[in-house]
Design goal:
This protein has 19 helices and five strands. It is an alpha/beta fold and 426 residues long. Among the domains are: 132 residues, P-loop containing nucleotide triphosphate hydrolases (Rossmann fold), CATH 3.40.50; 64 residues, Helicase, Ruva Protein, domain 3, CATH 1.10.8.60; 90 residues, Up-down Bundle (Zinc Finger, Delta Prime, domain 3). Strands 2-3-4-1-5 form a five-stranded parallel beta sheet, sandwiched between helices. Helix 7 links the parallel strand 3 and strand 4.
Length: 426
């Protein structure tokens, strides 16, 4: 009786399942996008078509086909398909899959594909459980993750798998996805409506299909053609692919810093806005600007550090959303400021010398002479007080072994004018 109900449920699920499930591609030819790894003649495509799929770690944002590709590999190669979620799977379940894979291989010569979703959520102990079976070929592992696997999957497992990075779908790819969804729904979708869906999907096929389905249902309920307003109503806010601990956090932060360093105020504001919209801690952005003010602007515009620090203080006193104005002002100021990394290079070079050569004794004229007996040891001898005698500016204050070493070389940009040798008064 249970089997009868299960069969009936499967039949009905095909009509009530989400649109993304109903139009899920079944073959490599039907898969949209990812031509950079699955194009004709590519190594991965040939391996799948020749029935020799390797163990894979599929890395990419949501809605780009990780689960779909895993299922296509299983169907194309005749492997048994088992699926687990790393969020809830226990070590015992993994061992049971491996045991079934061993039985199939021994009894029927059939291989088993274990699709492990969110593999980055597996701790080291559970990942280690997979190692012998993957190495011996008892199972073909296909792990899917939205996180950078080089951060979250242990090196031993990575070395036994091919890491494949899947990319967000292009606008042309998403238009093709929308057309397939519209055909499944029997919906008429005008070009401007399809463009609106594509623009809001963020490279995510699942989001595009969900938006299409909700929009179409709303339009049918109203008894009117599908319009852009239905799309806007179905999806109030475009999804932002951002994880505060993942690749996008580091990629956007890097772009933010490099845009300010490179003088592109528009890009700097854009990446700042992306971080704020994604829920990034605004203090992180403020800290990066304070660092950049010294590292990349320095004395070419000494006010840059004041502006960046003031923005951070404004954030603490005012908070968001109002403090976004101060953060944007600082980002624009830093981007437009003249640039110099002379101060940064000076401290980097000086610290390297201290690390490599050790700390050298200051010259006798600079050593502490306030205590009894210090003068007898030569401390303070030869020191010239610069306020009384300008010759004090011409002395070399470095340790004797370091005389002539130059750390600070003014860039000549902005207020950081190039100065003559030995002139320290500028």
């Amino acid at each position: 009786m249970a089997d009868l109900f299960d069969d009936a449920a499967m039949v009905r699920a095909s009509t009530v399942a989400p649109l993304a499930q109903r139009v899920r591609p079944k073959t490599l030819d039907d898969l949209v996008g990812q031509r950079h790894v699955l194009g004709p003649g590519s190594a991965l495509r040939r391996a799948i078509e020749d029935d020799r799929p390797p163990s894979l770690i599929l890395h990419g944002p949501p809605g780009v086909g990780k689960t779909t590709l895993a299922r296509i590999v299983a169907e194309s190669t005749g492997c048994a398909f088992e699926e687990l979620s790393a969020v809830s799977a226990k070590v015992e379940e993994v061992r049971e899959v491996i045991a079934r894979g061993r039985e199939r291989l021994g009894a029927y010569g059939q291989r088993t594909i274990l699709f492990l979703d969110e593999i980055h959520r597996f701790d080291k102990r559970r990942q280690d459980t997979l190692l012998p079976a993957v190495e011996d070929g008892l199972i073909v592992l296909i792990g899917a993750t939205t996180e950078n696997p080089y951060f979250d999957v242990n090196a031993a497992l990575l070395s036994r798998c091919a890491v494949v990075e899947l990319e967000p779908l292009s606008e042309d790819d998403l238009r093709q996805v929308v057309r397939r969804g519209a055909a499944e729904l029997g919906a008429e979708v005008a070009d401007d409506v399809a463009a609106a869906i594509v623009a809001r999907a963020g490279g995510d096929a699942r989001t595009a299909l969900l938006t299409l389905e909700l929009s179409w249902q709303t339009a049918r309920a109203e008894g009117v053609p599908l319009e852009e307003r239905h799309v806007a109503d179905s999806m109030r806010k475009r999804p932002i692919r951002y994880d505060r601990a993942g690749d996008m956090h580091y990629d956007v932060a890097s772009a933010f810093i490099k845009s300010m360093r490179g003088g592109d105020a528009d890009a700097a504001v854009y990446y700042l806005a992306a971080m704020l919209e994604a829920g990034e801690d605004p203090r992180f952005a403020a800290r990066r600007m304070i660092i950049l003010a010294s590292e990349d602007v320095g004395n070419a515009d000494p006010r840059a550090l004041l502006v960046a620090t003031a923005a951070a203080q404004a954030l603490e006193h005012v908070g968001l959303p109002e403090a976004q104005l101060s953060l944007a002002q600082a980002a624009i100021y830093l981007a437009r400021a003249p640039k110099s990394n002379a101060s940064a290079k000076a401290i980097w070079d000086a610290r390297r010398d201290v690390r490599e050569q050790g700390l050298k004794q200051p010259p006798a004229m600079l050593r502490d002479a306030h205590y009894g007996g210090a003068r007898a040891r030569g401390h303070g001898e030869g020191y010239v007080y610069p306020h009384d005698d300008p010759r004090g500016f011409d002395l070399d204050y470095l340790p004797e072994e370091m005389h002539g070493r130059t750390y600070y070389v003014p860039s000549g940009n902005g207020e950081e004018e190039a100065s003559g040798d030995g002139d320290r008064r500028r």
